[in-house]
Structure formats: C-alpha cells, structure tokens
Amino acid sequence: MRGPRMSTADDLARRTRAFVAEHVLPVDDTYDGDVVAAGGDDLRLRLQAKAREAGLLTPHGPVEHGGLGLGMVDRAAVFEEAGYSLFGPLALNVAAPDEGNVHLLDKVARGTQRERYLAPLVRGDVRSAFAMTEPAPGAGADPAALTSRASKVDGGWLLDAHKHLITGADGAGFFIVFARTSGEPGDSGGATMFLVPADRAGIEVVRHVTTMDASMLGGHCELRLRGVFVPDEDVLGEVDLGLRYVQVRLGPARMTHVMRWTGAARRAHEVAVQYAASRTMFGSSLAGLGLAQQLIADNEIDLAATRALLQQACVILDQGGRASKETSIVKTFAAEALHRVADRAMQLCGGLGVSADLPVAKIAREIRPFRIYDGPSEVHRWSIARRAVREITGTRTGGPA
Amino acid sequence: MRGPRMSTADDLARRTRAFVAEHVLPVDDTYDGDVVAAGGDDLRLRLQAKAREAGLLTPHGPVEHGGLGLGMVDRAAVFEEAGYSLFGPLALNVAAPDEGNVHLLDKVARGTQRERYLAPLVRGDVRSAFAMTEPAPGAGADPAALTSRASKVDGGWLLDAHKHLITGADGAGFFIVFARTSGEPGDSGGATMFLVPADRAGIEVVRHVTTMDASMLGGHCELRLRGVFVPDEDVLGEVDLGLRYVQVRLGPARMTHVMRWTGAARRAHEVAVQYAASRTMFGSSLAGLGLAQQLIADNEIDLAATRALLQQACVILDQGGRASKETSIVKTFAAEALHRVADRAMQLCGGLGVSADLPVAKIAREIRPFRIYDGPSEVHRWSIARRAVREITGTRTGGPA
Amino acid sequence: MRGPRMSTADDLARRTRAFVAEHVLPVDDTYDGDVVAAGGDDLRLRLQAKAREAGLLTPHGPVEHGGLGLGMVDRAAVFEEAGYSLFGPLALNVAAPDEGNVHLLDKVARGTQRERYLAPLVRGDVRSAFAMTEPAPGAGADPAALTSRASKVDGGWLLDAHKHLITGADGAGFFIVFARTSGEPGDSGGATMFLVPADRAGIEVVRHVTTMDASMLGGHCELRLRGVFVPDEDVLGEVDLGLRYVQVRLGPARMTHVMRWTGAARRAHEVAVQYAASRTMFGSSLAGLGLAQQLIADNEIDLAATRALLQQACVILDQGGRASKETSIVKTFAAEALHRVADRAMQLCGGLGVSADLPVAKIAREIRPFRIYDGPSEVHRWSIARRAVREITGTRTGGPA
Amino acid sequence: MRGPRMSTADDLARRTRAFVAEHVLPVDDTYDGDVVAAGGDDLRLRLQAKAREAGLLTPHGPVEHGGLGLGMVDRAAVFEEAGYSLFGPLALNVAAPDEGNVHLLDKVARGTQRERYLAPLVRGDVRSAFAMTEPAPGAGADPAALTSRASKVDGGWLLDAHKHLITGADGAGFFIVFARTSGEPGDSGGATMFLVPADRAGIEVVRHVTTMDASMLGGHCELRLRGVFVPDEDVLGEVDLGLRYVQVRLGPARMTHVMRWTGAARRAHEVAVQYAASRTMFGSSLAGLGLAQQLIADNEIDLAATRALLQQACVILDQGGRASKETSIVKTFAAEALHRVADRAMQLCGGLGVSADLPVAKIAREIRPFRIYDGPSEVHRWSIARRAVREITGTRTGGPA
C-alpha cells in the first residue's frame, strides 16, 4: 500500500503491470535484457504500437500532444510497473533520456519547437539524446567544466563539441546539445542548450562506449560535433541560461530513474522470494531460514524507504518546488538501496542468482551504474553536506553546487 | 520541508520548538539528560505546568479531556520538536509509556474507565505503565510466551505476575497489566489487559533495572503482582482479547517513538554540524573536509528517509489501517538509522563527541536501546520477511507472527 | 609489505608479476576477460607454454611431477600476482578447478592414479573438473542432499548422476565425480569420489549455464552421467569416505580462490587510484577529495585484512591443521571484502568505471559470484555461528555441519 | 587458535586469563566498570600487588627494571586476556597511558631518566600521563597545530601549556608534556617532549572531562601548565624531535589498545553467546535462530580479522619496522570492528543487553571512544588514502601526514 490515492494513476499502474507481464517480460527474458539482441528500434516500434493500442503510451507527455499528462506523484506507480521489465520503459515511451527530454521540452520549448521536437517525441516517432557530459577534463559531475563551444554566426551558431557517454545517441532523431556561449571552462555560467537534428552536417557518433548495462536503446556514445550549424530558432530557452534548464530536467529525471529502477529491483526481489520459498535446504524451506529472512526483510525495508522518499520529493515537485535537496537525497539513497536489493536477490538464489536462468543477475547489472549515472553518490553527498552546513549554520563550505 | 501541509500542526511544531529551547533544553543539558538527577516527578510537574500554560500539553489526547486531538500525521512534526530535548516529551506529556497508554485507553476504555484512568493521564495528573514484558522464559519479543496469570474470582480476578523492564513503573499511578486468562504459555490467545491502580495490595516494584538510558521517568523496573485483586469493571476491553489491543497500541506507539527519537537525533546532528563548521583542521573548516561531509550527508539521508517512511505509515494509521507491516518497517529502519545519526555526530565532534561537554554522547546513549525496546530489529525483520513471503508467494513460513 | 619472508616465494611472486604484465594482461584486456573470445584452450596452451619456459608453471604441483611444491603460505603471494590478470591463473596452471584438483589428487590419489590423472594435470596436458554440485533438491551448500548414485557391478561401479554448475566441465580431460555409494539423500555419509575420463560412454555436457562471469575456461556446466562404468581402480581414496576428501580439498581451494581474487581486486584498486590521481574535479585532483579518499582507504583496509586472515589460515594448513573454522571465516570475509574493493573502484572511476574502457567493471563482474561459489556467505555464517556456540558453551545448535 | 607459537607468551596468557577471572572480573562487575567507584588508586595498588605475586606485573616492561620484556607479538595474547576485564590492564600494569609510556621511555629515556621515571613506572609505584592533545584550535588529530610553548631559560625551560583530554592525569606521578620549542602553530617541526613531575609548581589539573567511558584511572583531564620549570636533564630525547618520538610511541600504543579492546569485545561476545544458548524464543534456542547466528558469525569474523591484522603489524614492529601504514589500518579497522562486536552482543541479549545485569553494555560504552581516541577513523583513513596514492602513483595529495 502506497498511500490513500485510489485514482486513474492506480488504474494505469494496474494496466501497465498486466501489459508488461504479457508483452514485454517475455522478450526481456529471452534476450537477457540486451536491447540490441532483442531488436533495437524495431523492437521499440513494435512494443510502442502495442502500448499505444492499450492507451498506455507516454503517460507523462502533455495531453495536447497525445500524452496522459501525469504529474510526478502519479508517475511513481506507473513507471515502477513499467520498470518491472528492463524493456518496459521503452515500451511505454518513458525510458531515459526521452522521458526527461519530453519533460524538459514541455517546460522550456516555445513556438514551433514544440511541434517539431516535442510532439514527435511524445508520439514515439523519434528518439532523442541529451548531450551534456564530456570526456575529462570537461563537464561531468561538475557542469562548470563545460568545454564544448557555440560560436555566434549570422542567423545562428556553430557548435564544436566533444561529448561522452551520451545515452541513446545512436539512432536518435535529434540531440539537445549543451555548449558554452560565454565564459571559460570553470565559469559556472555561460551555457546554452541547442536543439540539433541528428542528420545535420558535422555530427559524428564516434563509438558506443561499452558499459555493463545493455538495456538502453542507442547505447552510451561518444559524440563529436564539428562546426555544426544551429539556427537561432533552435536555441532551447534563453542563451546562457542552460544550467537553469538542467535543473528543470535533472530533479524530475532523477526521480523517474528511481521509479523505473524500483520496478526492476522489485522484480529481482520477487523472483528471489519465489525461489527461496520453493527451495529446500537443510530440511527447511530456504525462505524459512533466518539468514535468508534477513535478506528478504532488508529488501522490503530498502524498497519501502525508496518509495517513501520518492513520494515526498514528487509532492514538492508537483507543487512547483525545485526540491534540489530532496531529489539529491532520493537519488543517492535509491541508487544504493536498489542495488542492494538486487544484490541480495542474487545472493538468495545461490548459483542460479548469478546465472541467466533467472532474471536477477541482469537486473543487478543494469542497476549498478545508477550509482554513477546522473551524478555519482559521492558528488551528491558532497552537495547534500554543503547544503546542510549552510542551512544549519549559515556558513558556506567549498565543493559542488 | 516536509510536504505541503501548512496547518495547526505546523504552528504547534513551531511553538513546541520555541518552548523546548526556552524551558526544557537548559535543564536537560545541566543534568546530562538524567531525569532523576534533574528532579524526577517534580521536574515533570514543573515542566508540564509550563506546557499547559503554553497550550502545548498532551497534544494527542482526546479533546473531551483537554488534549488537542492530533492525529498521527500531525503528531509527527510536534513530537519531533518535543524529542529535540530528552525531557521534551515529558514536558508535553507525550513521553512513553503514557503517550501510548493515552492512545490505547482512548480506543479501548469504556464507561467510567475513561474518567478514572484516561482523563487524569491526559491532564498530566498521574503517570502510568504498560506491564507486558516478562523475564525469560516469559513474554518478550514473543507475546505468546506469556506466563502471568489472572484467576477468576467472585466479582473480579486475582493477578499473579512477574514483569520485567516495565518502563515508568516507579511512581506510576496505575498499571495496564497483561495476564493470561486462558490457555498455557506458548498459546497465542488467552491474554487480557487489566487496569490496576498502583496502590492496590500485592504490588511490588522490585527494583530498577539499571540500563544505559537515563531519561525515562520511573525507570525500567522489575515488578511483581501477588494475588492482586482487580474488579471486573477494570478489565480493559474484552477478556481474552488482550493481544488484539496490543496491536492497537503497538503500531502507533512505535511511530511516536520514532518521532521523538528523530528529534533527538536531529539535535545531535545539528550540534555536530555546528561544531564541524566552527572547528579548523588541517587548514580547512572541519565541515569542508570530505570525510566529514560524508558523515553529514549520511545523517541528512537517514533523517530524511526516517521522516518519509514515518509519514507514509501515519497516513495509513490516520485512515484507520493497522499498518502492521509499515510500522514494523519504520521502527526497524528508524531505530538503526537514528542511532547511526547520533553515532556519526559523535564521530564528527572528536573527543568532545564522547564527552558531556556536548549533548551528543548522551543522545547516542539514549537512542541505542530503541533497536531493542518495542521489539528487537531481528524480530521485526523476521516478521517482515515472513509477511513478504506470504504476500509474494502465498506460502507460510515459521517464526514470529 | 606482507611480513618478514624473503624467499623463493617472493622471487617467484616478482617474476610472476612481470610475466603477467608482459604476456597475460594484454590478452585479458583485449577481450574484456572473456576466455572463450580470447581463444579458449588454444589460449591456455599458448600461455602455459610461455609460463613453462619462464619456470612458473604449476608452482603448487608436486615436485615429482614437475611442479614447484609450494606450500600454502608461499602460494599466497604468487597466486595473488597470477590473479592480477583474470587469465593469469590459467597461464600458470593455478586456476580453479585444476589447482584444487592437483591438491586433492596429491593428497589422496594412489598407485597408477597419480601417473594417469595427477601427472598430466600438473604438466598442463589436460584440464579437469570437480563434479559435486547438483540441481535442486540435490547436493549444493548441503552435501548430505547428494542424489547421484554409484551402483556396484562386477569390477567397478555404474554412475548415474545429474550435476550442475560444474566449473571447467566443457573440454575437461577427466572428472572427479561425487556420488552416493550408500545411504539416502539426507544421510551425511555414503559418498564416494570417482575418477572418470571425459570420453567414457554415457557422459553428456548438457549445456553451459550462462553466468555473469566469463573468465573460467570450460564454463559452469550442466552434466549428466547415465550408466557410466568406472572400474574399481578409479575410486579416489576409499569408498564412502568422499566427504572426508571434500574437506581436504575445500579448505585449501577456498584459500587459493581468495589469493587469486585478491590479485584481481588489487588491480581494480590500483587502476582506480591511478585514475583518481590523474582526474581533476572541482579544482582538485579527484584523489585529493575526501569522499574519494574514503573509498581508497577502505580498499586498502579490506585488502590488508583479507591478506592477514589468509596468512593465518595458510600457516595452520601448512602445519597440517584442517583450519575449517579459519578457512570458512577467510572465505566469507574475503568474498565480501574483495567485491567491495572492486565495487568502490568502479565508483571511483565514475562513468568509465562501469565501462570496458577500464578493467574495473569486468573485475567486479568476475568477483561477485565468489560470495556464492564454494558456499554462499550465509551458509558459512551459519556454520561459523554453530561452531562458536559449541566452542563457547558446549551446546550444539541446528544447521549446516 | 592464533598460530603456531607455543611459548612463554602462551603460558603467560593462560595464567593471565585465570588471574583476571579470579581477581579482577568480580570487582569489575560489581562496579559496572567504574574505576573510581571501585576504589581508584587503592584498587590499583591492591590488584597490582596480586599481579606481582603471580609474576604477571608489567609483562612488557624491560627486564632490567623487573618487567618480563615481552615483544609486540607476544604481548598480543597476554594483553587480550588482560583486557577481558575492564580493570585487567590496570591490574597487570599494562593500561594506557602507562603501558605506552613505559614503551616510549624504554626507547628514548637516557641516563638517570631511566631510574627516575621508567623504573617506578615498571614497578607500578606511580602512574603517568602523556600530555599532547590540546583544546581547539591546538594539537589534536593534527599535531602540527601544537600551541603549547617551552621557552628556554637558564638550565632549563619554562612551559606554558593548555592540554585537554589527558588520560590518567589526575593522580599521575609525572607527565610527558609535548610543547613547541621552535616554530609556530601550523609548522610540522619544533616540538619537544619534557618529563615533568606532577608536584612541580604551576601545574593544575583543571577538571575531569566527563566522557562516556569510566574505566580509565585518572580520567581524561584538562590540564594547565603556567611557567612550569623543567631542567635540561628532563628533556626526553632531543630538543625539536618530539614528533619523531610520538611515532615511536603511537604505533605500538595503538596496537596495545587493540589488544586490550579485543579482550573486552571477546568477553561481550562470549557473554552474549552464553545468553543466546540459554534463552528460548519462538520454540527454539535463541542461538539456533538464523538472525542471531548472523550476529554471532559476524562477531567471530570481526574478532578474527582484528587479530590477524594485529599479528602482522606486530611482526613488523618486532623486526624494528615503523609499520605506520599497517598500524593505522589495524587501529582503524579494529576500533570499528570491536565496537560492532560489542554492539551486536548487546543486540543479541535483548533488554538485558542494554542493562547492567550483563557486562555487555558497559563494554560497548568503553570501546566506543576508541574510534576517536588515538586519531579518529576519518583522519586515519585520510592518511591511509594519501599513502596509497603515493605508493601506487608516486603522486602526493593534500591532507594529514
């Protein structure tokens, strides 16, 4: 039980659960969560067609473009059900980075940008990527280190950028590119966001960076933009205000990550409990042995705490708050807690837990990078601590913003 | 920020914070949290008189008897502010076990019992104790092991009971005694609750069990009842349904413990952050050193997760749910998390952290037993695991109910 | 510094380090530790030929068959250096399960068995497998559950066995098969070990169980033996004493696992520290940030504690002790500690830490199953606790032997 | 079993165990480990007289002065047995700070200093204190912050010092005072050690800093020296080389702390296991329940790892190595591990675990400050990390030496 709501969102969650069980999990488990092996964009189109039919596509998208307009609190239960399969978010068009890009564009895009970029994304016609992270010593956990540059030319800008670990880049229809329009690397301002169709001259997807996770369509890519022209009308929001929009995107995007991974971790937990209840050891059900019960109980606690923290941050976001501190806390706690859940589930299943016979090891593998993606836990802790010192004492200390 | 509420409860919380800072903390810190050294019942009466004046007494008590009638959600912020001082709960008449007994009596007491037992408790005229725990091999974490007996006699019952670790027993005006009216030790039913004035013949407070905590008025006592007569009208609720009422009391009582200890842990944290911000080490503010920031951030996370879990369980309780699973999870998580907070606060303050120069060590000392009182974490985990197995698989496994 | 020894073993360790760096790591890193992709048995033969040339092959093998006769204490430093590459143990012929099988055969094999089975294994002419684990509900963490059977026939035995997760089975020259010669599943005695050439009629390698680790040559296989004839002379040791020999093998085999994984974890740690020292973040070297220093220090502590525990158990084993308790403690601690080391190393390297650009993620992936293989931590803890209760109180409690 | 030694040290350990059980534990448990309540220096003299009779006094002291001359490895088992009672170290004259001061004086004192200061300490005629720590912003975890000053005058020095948390100061016969003879606070050199009889004019024991531990004779005191004259002959070692001697003292002193606290933690563990084996719960022995077994096993692992790390550092120290890194690792690990042991023991004993009915809570209380005394874990981690970065990469990073 997740609270008093009995609503459209609960109904959507129930229907999502059934949809995922029927259409998505069988594919996920056949291909061990490997989205390329399972069909890549073909798979996406096939699954999204079914979701569209079922009235489940892009539930967080603006209603004007065909979405269901769910707020953050309402997304929680639905996205958790989607995340129960590694391909569920793709099927419902709520996968990263598109989900966060829809959110961002809905808040910031103006005029024809909405029709040209937001609408096709909500409909699932294209995928997109958010090109911010750079290789060392560029922008990563520290966005002020941004080195990519946009130079003003007549009618627009020329972009020169080197990006890294750009999720979903391969096959994306357009990129949201983060580049410096003023200042130097190390300055905290001066960044701008640009909308860039993928077929624009000068863009190269250099390579897929091979990572331990395999379920993100379009991979995590290295990307180069060499003198790519972007007309003024494709500046997203205002020039030099890019970091402000990052905040608009980041808080909610972290929360929806948490929602999806909560679903995946819950699946690992449920599979493990099923296994433990069916397995006999030392004359008892494995699930009846104290050392197994500790694993099970700790999983329940971690899942409950993750959901409770999530709920509180979502309430604030739905009320228009930025919830910087809250989302940072939720992201940090959840990334660690959910990986613990998957890790304990592996342990509970013994030899099968680390095999592909059960879906537990793949879930652990997919969740692990979340402790790094979207800000490593260490950077979040740094930021949480600095804010705490400021709130409690009024004193500023050094470190990330 | 704890959510969208802006209400009487928030106002009460603010006023409680001011009251505690002005009237309670100075006493607490003078006596290192030792309630006997600080004056015992005299201190209680003095502080409660001030709270009454300030309109803050017994905020959870029924309005008909002079309380403020706060529900569980509303109690959270107020009780946290009370718990900021170890004597705050006493001052507001929201300390264990009276607070939980008020809750229990309000739900179960009938007829004249309300006037004779509940009303004076709400007014702060008397203290009370809940006499359930027994020495080994009697009732403790396993209530079915109950050995204390009530034998039916004409017009009432004769109680023979040996109780242990009965909080607040010394100086209590009456006891709520838990004794077996049918069945044998090991049977899960057959327990009944009795209301027993402390001056009834045959009651002996054998001794204070010396424990590491020192802020609970009336101690944790060993108690003997030998042939104590209780008239039928002082049976609380129905005969043989005692365990059902335990559930009425336990869930909320665990949550209010969590509220109070959250306040205490927050104080340890705030004192430590103040200290760290003022202390220079290795050419930096201690609060600016990464290893200190880890401690600060982890405290923020633990406090936030505790409050978030608490909030969700309180919503369910206010809606009339039993929230057995939720309160068990909250209690287990919070008892461990809040002790971690106090422990990290000690660590942050270095040598002063384990001294009486700062209020941190005393808070750690007072919180530690909460991982054992009201059900050790291990027993809660056992119960949480069994319930999870049942919910996920439909299978029952052995262990505590 | 690992103690006062300055010996042949130290010299061997140094030469092993150089050998691994020159000949093994380049292959390991080209193929991301995937032994099949890197060439499988061809790779093994190539690397072992080089190790033979360098005088480093089978350093723990009996001298009579061409090994170097190293005891357990001396193995520690050498095997750690071998383990620095995932393929190093294969190159030196100290990989599981052959390494443990050499140890077992050296202790138990008699007469012509030594020449027919032990000698070719020491020379690296063949690989072998230890076929004990069975699918549920057979023998796993609880060896008494053994269901595979050997029936006495004229001149030998007929084996009917179903085995699971048999490391190295695919391509092995022979199996050491564990089957019941008396008693029923659940009885603790009655098990016997048989030496069975892989080309014997009735043996089927059913499939590779796909697991998260990829560096074990011959995989983790499902295996069936249907009426396989084994002559009396190929019984290993005495009939019905199989469990006793398991103990001969298990203690040392667990320790050599720890040695190898210590090397792998050390590599992850060193790569991460190199990365952290070279990476600039928030105006500082990453390695100079407190939250990174915590990760680095904890890795140093975990590595040191693992080596210290290992050393003590090896001393006892070299003196002829069984060291059941000690090896159980070392295995449990090390499997968890070394995975923590690899996990922190990933964290320290940020996005690259979970990528194949650095060798950290693959090491974490390979080490993780060690918390399950050779007895899950939970079963070891159970056994450690029971022994502690027995030693401290003289009382026996239920659970695994 | 702790290794292959079978020696005088083992015999001493056995005799120490018997001595502590017969003469020391009864006093310790009667007074809940409170050394003042138990008699203070009178108790010390009484117990030491018995230890002298039993041939167990000052086993680490130089033989020339009546000690037994034990090296570090040999001390481990003996001091652990002494530490089994909180007063055992006092009884054997191996308590901090005298034990470390004997070690320091034996290495550094020259000429008549040996007879005047070392000899009476070895004989147990006097106690001593090591006066280094200062209140903020002076010397603590960062010794370079030293503010106490010694000014050269004819024939000696005048000391002006403010010291804090000086263990054993009240009642000490003499102090080893650490003061700056050159340079300014923040400079890493320029500190000198002085031998100062307690009755010298100008010394004031300002107060006992009340701390959570109660078993250290002479308390943890604030100390002032105002113009205290020290003749040149009472300079300990060379002028300006004080920090070098601190290293001579610190490494071994940390190890002997670990030895003693290992004994105390082992007692808590054994008492808890005895309790768990005798207590019945939910129809089983508590010691047979899985969640209790986890606590028991983790205690065994923590104790074993502590002893193993300790052993390795002691071997190096006995060989004349400084073992800075090793002792830092051992101290950090042990302080945390031994507190975990005591904490789990409390948990295992339920309500009695936090009471004075069992000796577990007092042990937890006494051990906790060890994570702060002698360098907080955080400072040690910082130092361990910096050294690791230097060893692995050759790069220096900022932080404590």
TrEMBL record, chains A, B, C, D:
Entry annotated with the keyword Oxidoreductase: yes
Residue ranges occupied by any Acyl-CoA dehydrogenase/oxidase N-terminal domain in the UniProt entry: 11-125
Cellular component terms per the entry's GO annotation: cytoplasm
InterPro entries given in the database record: Acyl-CoA_dehydrogenase, Acyl-CoA_DH_CS, Acyl-CoA_Oxase/DH_mid-dom, Acyl-CoA_Oxase/DH_mid-dom_sf, AcylCo_DH-like_C, AcylCo_DH/oxidase_C, AcylCoA_DH/ox_N, AcylCoA_DH/ox_N_sf
Organism, as annotated: Xylanimonas allomyrinae
Record's protein name: Acyl-CoA dehydrogenase
Pfam families named among the record's database cross-references: Acyl-CoA_dh_1, Acyl-CoA_dh_M, Acyl-CoA_dh_N
Domain Acyl-CoA dehydrogenase/oxidase C-terminal: 242-388
PANTHER family for the chain: ACYL-COA DEHYDROGENASE FAMILY MEMBER 11, MEDIUM-CHAIN SPECIFIC ACYL-COA DEHYDROGENASE, MITOCHONDRIAL-RELATED
Keywords: FAD, Flavoprotein, Oxidoreductase
Family, similarity comment: Belongs to the acyl-CoA dehydrogenase family.
Domain Acyl-CoA oxidase/dehydrogenase middle: 129-226
GO process annotations (BP): fatty acid beta-oxidation using acyl-CoA dehydrogenase
Complex and partners: Homodimer.
Domain of life: Bacteria
Cofactor(s) needed by this chain: FAD
The keyword Disulfide bond is annotated on this UniProt entry: no
One GO molecular-function entry: acyl-CoA dehydrogenase activity
